[in-house]
Amino acid sequence: LEGGGGGPIQLPGKVKPPQVVLRKGRTGGAELWAWHESARMGQMAVARRSCTLAMYDDRGNRVATYELEHAWPSKIEVSAVRSGPSEVLYDSVTLVCENLQRITV
Question: What pTM value is reported for the model?
Fold first, then answer.
């Protein structure tokens, strides 16, 4: 913070890399876990991938598109298991990337 005539001014500090959290229903595939494991083991040349994320509204219309450069999964979480026949298990993955850019639709 620096003082000024109108009070303190916030200055930018260390820039954190962009992060995106994705949630999906649990499936039998292990690709996401294998990707996370390669990043966790330090195989970043293999783990970093560029990708595009598209978001849609409830009518199926694309509302936003994002490009992630050199993304890798920093964290995976599994939803808590609750009793009941209608409960759905979810996987949550946090992707860290070098650059996140929104592309106009």
Answer: 0.71
Instruction: Name the residue with tokens 């009793």.
Output: 83
Give dist(CA 74, CA 55) in Å, integer: 22
- Over the stretch 26-50, which tens digit does the pLDDT of each residue have? 777 788 888 888 888 888 777 899 9
Domains of the chain: 19-80+87-103 (2.30.110.20)
